[in-house]
């Protein structure tokens, strides 16, 4: 067993760390406060190849492994989880799904600009009445011969306003249940497709979350991903990879808060010495460091399995479940260590605490991860 990163992986991690420090950090408080999407930063991330990290270079991707993706997600998320969720969704839920299951024509037309970061994508599964219970899709894609007629509403869609390409999950054959669901590529600007208002969120406020409305949108048949009825499996398989990205995001939020807490504890004096010399603080730091390291190992293990082509659904859910819990705990402790300073925006930890919460909700709540893990344990 080798725990060492390759030279290339270290270089990529360092590049992401530099980018986060030099490009993401300066405006992050303002973007959070004003719910401002990091447009310029995402453009630069695209130029660096971070929006199509694992895609084959022949489709404009960087051709890197999932371990590198985890390293990048951790570094970006230490500083700006609003930017990193864009990276995660574009890489895992959009590019990865299109590369694995799309046709050559779909890859030429959609994957290439997505992987190059020229446009960004969105993954549209959740609905007002189908969040965790994802088989209960109400959005309908009626088969009209050469096209589908799409009607319905999607909720809480990351990149909802800024995306150009949307992978939309919809029901075509209700009598077949989840086996009647399709995944369609929908373009912004198609007649009948409207982006609803932006959500005013607790955390990841710089990201762009919208509802989407489809009213008699004609989607050509060639925009269906996979065979008729493959849409639910497409969503589930794609989410497996997505959960590694969000696990790494949670890890980054936790380790970002931890680094801030360590620095603060070294500087802040109480009772005549730095608070780092008080055992109450040392114990908190020791617990945080131990939990963060365990979360990191789970993330890397899931990524390693994926890179080896082995089943990784359970490992991805374990990583996401655990890392998101660690993100909540570590950020709450980081605020506590900062005392009153932790409660104001300039010290960053209150934002990380707010950002941490979403990692227990999106791409499957903690309860969904437990379902996935326990099903794997109990299956014959
Ligand atoms: N891979 C392949 N197929 C899978 C699968 C997987 N990982 N998981 C389930 N399936 C298949 C099953 O085999 C079954 O197919 P068959 O009947 O043909 O065998 C079918 O899907 C239905 O499976 P279940 O009976 O297990 O379905 P269920 O309704 O009991 O539960 C669930 C499935 C795991 C709970 C699923 O609904 C789920 O993951 N829900 C959470 C959805 C989610 O993560 N939403 C996040 C939205 S995206 C997002 O948040 C993005 C963002 O903006 C950042």
Automatic annotation (TrEMBL):
CDD domains: SCAD_SBCAD
Keyword Flavoprotein in annotation: yes
Annotated Acyl-CoA dehydrogenase/oxidase N-terminal domain residues: 6-118
Family that this chain belongs to: Belongs to the acyl-CoA dehydrogenase family.
Keyword Flavoprotein (UniProt): yes
Classification via PROSITE patterns: ACYL_COA_DH_1, ACYL_COA_DH_2
Domain Acyl-CoA dehydrogenase/oxidase C-terminal: 231-377
Residue ranges constituting the Acyl-CoA oxidase/dehydrogenase middle domain according to the UniProt record: 122-217
Transmembrane segments: none
Protein name per its UniProtKB record: Acyl-CoA dehydrogenase
Biological source species: Parapedobacter defluvii
Keywords from the named record: FAD, Flavoprotein, Oxidoreductase
Entry cofactors: FAD
Extent of the signal sequence: none
């Amino acid at each position: 067993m080798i725990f060492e990163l390759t030279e290339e992986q270290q270089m990529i991690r360092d590049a992401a760390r530099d980018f986060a420090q030099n490009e993401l950090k300066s405006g992050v408080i303002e973007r959070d406060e004003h719910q401002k999407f990091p447009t310029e930063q995402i453009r630069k991330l695209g130029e660096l190849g971070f929006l199509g990290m694992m895609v084959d270079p022949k489709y404009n991707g960087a051709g890197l492994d999932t371990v590198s993706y985890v390293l990048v997600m951790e570094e970006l998320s230490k500083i700006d989880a609003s930017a990193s969720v864009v990276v995660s969704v574009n890489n895992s839920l959009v590019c990865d799904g299109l590369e694995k299951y799309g046709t050559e024509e779909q890859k030429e037309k959609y994957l290439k600009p997505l992987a190059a970061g020229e446009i960004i994508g969105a993954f549209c599964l959740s609905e007002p009445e189908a969040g965790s219970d994802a088989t209960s899709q109400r959005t309908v894609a009626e088969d009209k011969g050469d096209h589908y007629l799409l009607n319905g509403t999607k909720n809480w869609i990351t990149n909802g306003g800024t995306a150009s390409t949307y992978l939309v999950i919809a029901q075509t054959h209700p009598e077949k249940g989840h086996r009647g669901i399709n995944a369609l590529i929908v373009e912004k600007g198609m007649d009948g497709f409207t982006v609803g208002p932006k959500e005013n969120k607790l955390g990841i406020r710089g990201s762009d979350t919208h509802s989407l409305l489809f009213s008699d949108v004609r989607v050509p048949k060639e925009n269906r991903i996979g065979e008729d009825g493959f849409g639910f499996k497409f969503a589930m398989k794609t989410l497996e990879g997505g959960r590694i990205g969000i696990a790494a995001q949670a890890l980054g939020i936790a380790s970002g808060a931890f680094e801030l807490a360590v620095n603060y504890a070294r500087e802040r004096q109480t009772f005549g010495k730095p608070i780092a010399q008080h055992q109450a603080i040392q114990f908190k730091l020791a617990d945080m460091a131990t939990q963060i390291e365990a979360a990191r190992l789970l993330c890397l293990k899931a990524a390693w399995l994926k890179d080896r082509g082995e089943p990784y659904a359970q490992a991805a859910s374990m990583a996401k479940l655990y890392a998101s819990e660690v993100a909540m705990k570590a950020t709450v402790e980081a605020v506590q260590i900062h005392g009153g300073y932790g409660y104001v925006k300039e010290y960053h930890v209150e934002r990380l605490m707010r950002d941490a919460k979403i990692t227990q909700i999106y791409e499957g709540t903690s309860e969904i991860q437990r379902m996935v893990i326990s099903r794997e344990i109990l299956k014959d």
